[in-house]
Amino acid sequence: MIETKIFHMSQIEEAANILKNGGLVAMPTETVYGLAANALNGEAVAKIFAAKGRPSDNPLIVHVADVDDIFRFNLVSDFPKQAANLAKHFWPGPLTIVLPRTDAIPNEVSAGLDTVAIRLPNHPMARALIKTADLPLAAPSANISGSPSPTTAQHVLKDLNGKIDGILDGGNCLVGVESTVISLCEDKPRLLRPGGITLRQLKEVLGDVLVDDAVLHQLKEGQKASSPGMKYKHYAPKAKVILLKGDRSAYIDYVNKNADNHCLALCYYEDVPGLLVKSEAFGSEYDDSEQARLLFDKLRKIDEMNDISTVYARCPNPDGIGMAVYNRLIRAAGFREVDL
Ligand code: TXA
Ligand code: MG
Question: Which domain holds residue 245?
């Protein structure tokens, strides 16, 4: 056990020194909290995998504060025009770009791949931390592997207290789901993980964008994941989650007929008045940004209720940011889905 200190904005320097000395600090970003280490130091990065219990074949995102850092630290061997276009439109912001890497990237970061994922976050504390440390920071979500990503400093503390050196407290994350991941390492741009930047936004800049199979479907036995993280179950609460696909009245009817005392409805605000069982709303049916912002906090809350064995979740509309909400929920449900 080590002591996990909580830092505020005025203590950025102290947090940055920990990173310079090879330690681990959790930092707020606009998407979720990340668990940061010096991306150029393989030994420091190895501690991230140990603290999270993360499988070693799952690569990490490298965070920078300026596009120029990518060249200054010699992180990629190619920065194509499409990358420059994406950077111009969406950085700083919730977009991660996978590019061919250089030898400056330790194996621990790339997990044996010849590519590296780069992101320029849009959160003043994350950017200040990167700038003060003057390092590129490798940072996966700051949760124990398999639990929902953290959107508050308290979530991080719950998972990693005693395992990391510090947490920079920046309050609630505004986006609430992890960044969109797009690969520019093949003939065509490929969406590997949906997030805060939508498919439509990407297409407006790049034209054609392929959507990887793993985004909306369960990988088949033996099918290789383009993004290793997509093959894990992920975000799984203790209760069994079932996604119910249908309109409001079909959902309410199904839940009221099938639920007992140990069931919970994970629904939209608008569903609550019709439900006869316990419920938690993860936003309005008409606001996919709100659904994204609230989802992980609700999944964590349900995990703390010990008497819930089944969660009937309303299936989000997989458009816009809803694609990210659906992608996370279908994993929480272990791909259990019922058409009503
Ligand atoms: O919003 C975010 O992206 C947050 C914040 C902290 O920046 N980070 C985050 O990291 O979600 P993580 O490690 O939880 O998810 C990174 C995802 C994983 O699915 C991983 O497999 C994929 O990105 N990834 C990382 N490097 C990759 C690469 N070189 N090629 C393909 N996928 C990669
Ligand atoms: Mg993660």
Answer: 240-339
